[in-house]
Amino acid sequence: MQLDVVNDENKKVGTVDVKDDVFGGRVNGDLMWESVVHANAADRSGTHAAKTRAFVSGTGKKPWKQKGTGRAQVGSSRTPLWRHGGTVHPPRPRSYDFKLSKKVERGALRSALSEKMKAGEVIVVDALAATAVKTKAAAELLKRLGITGKAVLVDVAADENLSRSLRNIPGVSLVASARLTARDVIAAGRVVATRNALEKLPGGARMKLTDVIRRPLITEKTSLLREDGRTIVFEVAPGANKIQVKRAVEQLLGAKVESIRTSISHGKIKRQGRFAGRRSDWKKAYVKLREGAKMPEFLEGA
After folding, report:
1. pLDDT for residue 209
2. 3-class DSSP state of 118
3. 206 has a pLDDT exceeding 60
4. Across residues 174-190, what is the average pLDDT?
5. Rounded to an integer, what distance in angstroms lies between the CA atom of residue 96 and that of residue 195?
6. Which of 69, 111, 213, 269 is 20 to 30 A removed from 80 (C-alpha atoms)?
7. Buried-exposed string 84-119: b where 16+ CB fall within 10 A, e elsewhere
């Protein structure tokens, strides 16, 4: 899918390739609901509190003797049964935040972006910046882009001048792409994102071939696997999934892939004197070509 890129004068200056499953996939309302509930829960301050009988003011002395007065037995004036006494099981300060998997967050964001794209409410610009802190200039920028009402502006890093310029405009916010949530997209009437911000979104821009496949692995073990004439091992990007690896391999080799198996290789610990460090983890993909597919020439005899 290609999207038009405009400048601050709302004139087309180019296009950007984005993934169809991110901006044109199925809208999953359940994932969006979970993400919004999680964001609302995380924003709750949770400062509510009430005093138990241990914290209310009052004496610890027994008001009267246990027997012989004809009155009800009582041991403290701070009992919950009395006026000005403590509260039984009161609310305590706590966090309402809960863990939501990254997979659900990414799926909710994809669904929210797909919904906005189908409604024609996504605008891609080449840059979002301001030379000075001027609310009037920011309002004119939004007007030129045809934005009225609520909107969320997305950039790789929020420009300080533009962020301060937008603070006096109700319903408009500037968010870094790494902090964009499904709630931000759903609550906004229009989504304005820069070309670079789309590339930083989870799976936003289409991954290039060199972004997926790092290099073929030629070792003694992989040479044994290649004896069947169909299996090749590659080092791939840590964030690449099997679908992306399959597309990249088929594009690179011009052959159909039958199956893919991936694994994570943990970095080794390296020591130098009294200093120790650990290398980064990396990802391998075991690619099995379909029957009859030709092994690439650069691996023949390796």
Report:
1. 76
2. helix
3. no
4. 92
5. 35
6. 69
7. ebbeeeeeeeeeeeeebeeebbbbbbbbbbbbbbee
Residues of the chain with CATH 3.40.1370.10: 2-43+98-200
Helical spans, DSSP H, in the chain = 20-23, 29-43, 102-118, 135-144, 160-166, 182-187, 195-200, 209-212, 220-225, 242-253
Q: What is the dihedral of CA 245, 246, 249, 255, to 10 degrees?
A: 170
Taking the model in full, what pTM does it have? 0.65
**Residues whose CB falls within 8 Å of the CB of residue 43, separated by 6 or more in sequence, listed in order:** none
Please, where in the chain does CATH 3.30.70.330 lie? Answer: 209-299
What is the DSSP code string of 4-31?
Answer: EEE-TTS-EEEEEEB-HHHHSS---HHH
- Ramachandran bin of 23, using left for φ above 0, alpha for ψ from -120 to 50, beta for the remaining angles: alpha
- State phi, psi for 6 to the nearest 5 degrees: -115, 160
**Measuring CA to CA, which residue among 167, 164, 162, 191 is closest to residue 177?**
191
β partners of residue 15: 4
HSE-CB of 102 using CA atoms within 13 angstroms: 5
Query: DSSP label at 227?
Result: G
- Measured CA to CA, the distance from residue 154 to residue 140 in angstroms comes to 18
CATH C-level class of 2-43+98-200: alpha beta
Structural tokens at position 137: 């200039």
Tell whether domain 209-299 is in CATH 3.30.70.330. yes
Three-state DSSP class for residue 50: coil
> Does pLDDT of 271 surpass 60?
yes
Query: Rounded distance, CA 175 to CA 157, Å?
Result: 8
- Nearest by Cα to 34 from 117, 102, 94, 122: 102
